[in-house]
Amino acid sequence: MRLPGFYKKFIVVFSVVLFIIISAYVYTRYNFLKAKNFKPDQSRAKNILDLRPAIIAKLQQVVKDGSDGLYVLSIQKLGIDVLAAKLDAANASITVDTVAMLQLDKLKKLPDDIFKIKFASLHIDGIGLEDLINKKHIAISAIYCNSPLIEVYHKNRTYNKAIRKASDTLSLYRRIKGQATSIVIGKINIGKGTFINHNLDKKPHLTQFNVLSIVMKDLLIDSTTQYDTNRFLFTKYTAIECNNYFFRTPDSLYFFKIGSIQVSGEQHKIIATDVELTPRGNKRQFESRLSVRKVMLHLTFPKIALSNINWWSMINRERFIAKEATINHGSFYVYLDRSLPFGPFKINNFPQQVLMNIPVPVSVRKLTLHHLDVSLEEFNPDSKESGTTFFDDINGTAENISNVRAEIKKARYLTVNAKSLFMHKIPMAAKFRFDLSRYRTGEFTADIFMDTLNNTIVNPIAKPLGLFNVRTGQMQTGFAHLEGNDFTIKGTVALNYTNLHIDPLKKNKNNGGKLKKKTFTGLFANIFLIKNSNPGKGNDLRKPTFSVSRGKHSNFISFIWFSILTGILKTIGIPVKLVLN
Fold first, then answer.
1. What are the CA-CA distances from residue 313 to residues 39, 112, 395 (Å)?
2. Distance from C-alpha of 261 to C-alpha of 242, rounded to nearest angstrom
3. What backbone torsions phi and psi does residue 57 show, to the nearest 5 degrees?
4. How many other CB atoms sit within 10 Å of the CB of residue 534?
5. CB-hemisphere CA count at 13 Å for 128?
6. Which residue would you say has higher pLDDT here, 413 or 466?
7. CA Rg, the chain, in Å?
């Protein structure tokens, strides 16, 4: 029986198609997916035509070859829909081959950053077999990753110094150009991730970001986007949120916490909420870790916002450049126990010197403070009491916060202008100007103004800290001008006051060490030393000049305060040595 011509042609065409399919399968499996060091685990194959074990083996080979044997890929479950161009992976990880790591280190080829990665699930849309293997041009519709854990172990190796120096002048695109010429991804969604950085060159070694969520859209990495400042990490839109960021400071005295960090690439903005630097334990527990005098800090900021950030500089040059920063509300508490002995004297710790010594280039054109409260508490062993100075509702700005040399040449001064309420009630204003071009010697100027002040405001800090009581007196205005550096402050003080009478205090041995008046000393001082008014009757306002050496005042605030106190004492007529004694 002869077959009609149509059926003959059908059989021939079907045979050719079947041959092509079989040939494609054989080529894909035994050539395209051939892995020289990894044998496909056929025990996981559903049938003889299942390519998944071969694909896993090929991916393992690609990872091994691409890392000089450093990394090992493991995938527990892989699902591929070739027609729909979808891939699903579950319980995958990239670990380190320790034998290869030691060998690479011996050959001086081990990179500075070592990675460990694992994730619960990974889903990719718009990916084909060619995309899995061809690393030069990658085009993917979407990536969804759930519960990834990424750990980075960083150590600057001396033999990589030349590579690091060369990389400093390269954009991120040029650094990865050897691995991929172009990467296009429509959307990336990462949920419930954890990122842990182990910096083996510094203490603390560990920094951890928890509950990390990332959404990215329109990612394009190629030569056209490498300098695009309107993109963040090469995307048109990126939103990053991290909760419960936490680490212990290198001296083990504090915990640093951030409730959440939100990054908006499109808006060039970073918002941090519930930022806190908190001591480990209470005052007694904190001081148990000290052998010398040191301030205890407690900072809380409900919200810090940074805007107009230059993403390109941050990612490619590792520089932090922002036009504006804002701190809303918050508190700054400082405690000092003067019963502890002085520690080693330190200089180069003025604000501009701390800024210039930050290892990362930083530039913030303007920082704005809104409603910040500052309190400074000191314990005086002579009175066995503490006194607290309050500066409430601070509003102000700091401009030209920069340690970038090129910017300092254009604008050399960091300026701070602020207003607040002294001791909850008295308006005051301060202006500081720090010379960044002369930061090594700590050059600065300061102007401080205070409004009407009476004895009821002063005594809560005068009694415990100064061992004196202002019986009567009122200051109408007060002004101080200071010019200083690391070693000396010179200045003038102008106090307009009336009817000043002071009672020196001492411990009462018969009453549990409580303070009592020095009757004779007070009488002598008020009659012969203290100038009860300024200006005196028929005289001009006294504006004494003074010069103060830094001495044991190792921090900026105490040096400023002692200088102003010297001017006040000269104004009212009390010898500085008498007060110090």
1. 45, 21, 30
2. 5
3. -60, -40
4. 22
5. 7
6. 413
7. 34
Phi, psi of 45 (to 5 degrees): -75, 140
Cis amide leading into 359 (omega within 30): no
Beta bridge partners of 246: 208, 257
Which residue shows structure tokens 């921090």? 555
Global pTM value? 0.74
CA 570, CA 330: separation in Å to the nearest integer?
Answer: 36
Contacts with 293 (C-beta within 8 Å, 6 or more apart), sequence order: 336, 337, 338, 340, 341, 342, 343
Peptide bond preceding 535: is omega within 30 degrees of 0, i.e. cis? yes
CB 104 within 8 A of CB 64: no
* Alpha-carbon distances of 35 from 65, 136, 138, rounded to whole Å: 10, 19, 21
Distance of CA 142 to the CA centre of its chain: 32
Question: Average pLDDT of 398-417?
Answer: 94
pLDDT > 90? residue 39: no
Residue type present at position 503 = D
Query: Are β-strands 296-309 and 320-328 bridged in parallel, bridged antiparallel, or unpaired?
Result: antiparallel
Q: How confident is the model at residue 332 (pLDDT cuts 50, 70, 90)?
A: very high
Q: What share of the chain is helix, strand, coil (3-state, %, to 5)?
A: 25, 45, 30
The owner of tokens 């400082």 is 334
342-388 pLDDT tens trace: 888 778 889 999 999 888 889 999 999 999 999 999 998 888 889 99
Rounded Cα–Cα distance for residues 85 and 546 (Å):
80
Output phi, psi for 558, to 5 deg.
Answer: -65, -35
What is the CA 293 to chain-centroid distance, rounded?
A: 26
Contact 254, 333 (CB under 8 A): no
The answer to whether residues 77 and 119 touch, using CB atoms and an 8 Å cutoff, is no
Dist CA 118 CA 298 (whole Å): 37
199-226 pLDDT per residue, tens: 887 765 677 777 778 888 888 877 777 6
Report CA torsion sign: 135, 136, 140, 146. Answer: positive
